[in-house]
Amino acid sequence: MEPVYKNPKTLIDTPTHYCPGCGHGIIHRLIAEIIDDLDIRGKTIGLAPVGCAVLAYNYLDIDMCEAAHGRPPAVATGIKRVHPDKIVFSYQGDGDLAAIGMAEIIHTASRSENITVIFVNNAVYGMTNGQMAPTTLLNQRTLTTPQGRNEKYDGYPIRICELLATIDGSRFLARTSITSPKNIIKTKQLLEKGFKSQIEEKGFSLIEILSPCPVYWRMNPNDAMKFIDDNMTTTFPLGIFKDWESQN
Amino acid sequence: MSTEKNQKLLLTGNEAAAEAAIMAGCRFYYGYPITPQNEILTHMATRMPQVGGTCIQVESELAAINMVHGSAAAGARTMTSSSSPGISLKQEGISYLAGSELPCVIVNVQRGGPGLGDISPSQADYFQAVKGGGHGDYHTIVLAPSSVQETADLVFDAFDLADCYRNPVMILGDAQLGQMMEPVVFNKKQNPNLYKKPWALTGANGRRKNVIKSFYPVKGELEEFNAKLQKKYRQIEAEEVRYEEINTKKADIVIVAYGTCARICKEIVKIGEKLNIKIGIIRPITLWPFPCDIIRRVSERVQAILTVEMSAGQMVEDVRLSVSGRCPVHFYGRTGGGIPSPKEILEKILEIIPIKEKVTCAT
Ligand SMILES: Cc1ncc(C[n+]2csc(CCOP(=O)(O)OP(=O)(O)O)c2C)c(N)n1
C-alpha cells in the first residue's frame, strides 16, 4: 500500500521543543514539504532566528545559519550575495522582525534582496515568556501589558505586510493563517509562491503567518485558533498585499 | 584603479586597506559611512563591481557586521570597516562571529571618544578591540599597522589569519593612518591561499547539512565549546605574536607604543642618543595576542618602561601585566585628538631617567 501521508524528507523525524498547540511545528512541516516538492533540499540555506524557533536547524535537514536577534535578513543578504544561485530564506518571529529587526527587514525589502522571509506573527514574545510584541493586539493581555495593550500607553500594533507594501522592492507579500486545514493548504500555496518568486529571481518576498501561542495567550489550543480567526484577523486582515505577477 | 604587483602607488591608509582586501580575494564588503574611514567604503563602491564583487552601503553597522556573518558563513572572504562608534555597534555581531568561528576582517579607523567624541586620531578603542569587546569569552586577532604600507600588508595577512583560525581579525588603525598618504606597493603573493571550508553553507547537496551557530543550550556543551575556543586562543598566542624591536639591547628605558604613537616615538631614539640616554622601542604589531614575552624579558634589564598611547591608558595595563613589577612602568597619553609630540615624550623620559648632567630639552 502506498502511504498517502508521511514525513517530508526534509523534516527531521524528532520531537520538537515547541509547546502544545504552537504553530511553529505546522509551519516547519510546510517548509519541509515545499523543499521536497520543489526538489531544492541541496540548494536551500535557511536562517534560524533568536526566538522560539531558534532550534529550527534541529528540525530541517538543510544547511542553516543562526542570526543574532533581528538580523536574519542581513545575514541572509550576506549569504545570498555569495550564492545567488541558492535558495535563501529567513524564519522570524514578530519581536525579531518587527521590533529589534525592523531596520533590517525594511532595507532588505528596499534592496529587493532575492530572498524569502517567513514571518511568524504570534502577537507575543514567546521565548522570553510572553511579553508584548509590536504585533500585540489592542487590549490583549501580556506579561508587560497586564491590563491589556493600551494605545495611549503602549502604542498600536504594527502591520508588516501593509508597511512593506509601500516599498517598491517588495515583490510578493501575503498574510495567511494556519487555523484550519483550508488555511494551512492556502498557507502552503503562498509559501510556495514565495519560494518560486525567488527561484524566478523576482526579488524580495515575505509571507506573514498568523500563528497560535496558546501558552502565552493563556488559552487552550482550540480557543487560540478561534482567537486568530475572530480577533487577530480584524487587525491583521489576510490577503495578498503585493504580487509581481499581477503587477506585470 | 587597477593594481599591478610591485607597482608603487600613492594612497591613503584607507584606500590601501580597501585595495589590499581586494588583492587578498575579499569580494564581499559591507559598510556604513563614518569619518575618518569613508574612503574605504567609497573605494570599495568603485572597485568591487570592477572585480565582480559586492559592496553594499548598508543601513547601519549592525546590518554590515551581520552581512559579514552571512558571507563568512557562506564561505567567502568578507570585510567591513568603521570607526569607533560604529565598532561599538558591531560588537554584538563580532561576538556572534567569534562564537560561530567565522573568519572575517574588521577595520577600525579609530577616532576620539567617548560618545560622538570627535573625528581626530585616537587609540582609545584598545580595550574594545583586544579584550573581546562584545559579550562572552572570546578574542579577535588585532593587528596594528603604523604606516600605509603596513596597513596594506596587515590587511592582506588578516584574511589568511582569519581563515587559518576561523576567527575574526581586526585591523586597529586611527584617523591619522587612515587619512595620510604614503607610497605603497602591493607586493604580497597575488593568489591568496584560500583555505578549504567544508563547514561553509553552500546547500547540502550530496552531503550532510552544515549548521553555523553559537547556541549551546544543552548543559555542558557550552563549556566544552568554550574550552575549544580557549585552546585555539592559546595556539594563536603561541604562534602569531608580532612586534618590532628597536634598540632594546642596551636601552636604559624602553618605550612600548603601537601604530601612530610608535612612529612618533621612533623619532626620539635619535634625540636620546644626543642626550646620552639609550632609548629602545617595542612596537606591538599584534595587540592580541600581545607581545608579553619580549616585554617581560626587556623589563628584566631596563631601568623603566614608558607606554605612550593616544588614550588615557589602556595598553599600559597589558604592559604592566607583562612586566609584573620587574621594573617601573610609566605612562604618557593624550586623549581627544591630542597626539603626543616627541618633545612631550622626551620630557616624560627625562622625568623618569635621572641623568647625571641636567640637559634641557630643545627639540
Ligand atoms: C539582543 C537581544 N535582545 C534580547 C534577546 C532576548 N530574546 C530572545 S527571544 C526574544 C523575543 C522573541 O520573540 P519573537 O521574535 O516574537 O519570537 P517567538 O519567540 O514569539 O517565536 C527576545 C527578546 C536576545 N536574545 N538578544
Automatic annotation (TrEMBL), chain A:
UniProt keyword Oxidoreductase present: yes
InterPro entries: 2-oxoacid:Fd_oxidoreductase, THDP-binding, TPP_enzyme_TPP-bd
Pfam families membership: TPP_enzyme_C
Gene3D superfamilies, per the entry: 3.40.50.970
GO biological process, one term: cellular respiration
Residues annotated as domain Thiamine pyrophosphate enzyme TPP-binding: 58-209
Molecular function terms from GO: oxidoreductase activity, acting on the aldehyde or oxo group of donors, iron-sulfur protein as acceptor; thiamine pyrophosphate binding
Keywords, in A-Z order: Oxidoreductase
Matches recorded under PANTHER family: 2-OXOGLUTARATE OXIDOREDUCTASE SUBUNIT KORB-RELATED, SUBUNIT OF PYRUVATE:FLAVODOXIN OXIDOREDUCTASE
Descriptive protein name: Thiamine pyrophosphate enzyme TPP-binding domain-containing protein
Organism for this UniProt entry: marine sediment metagenome
Lineage: unclassified sequences, metagenomes, ecological metagenomes
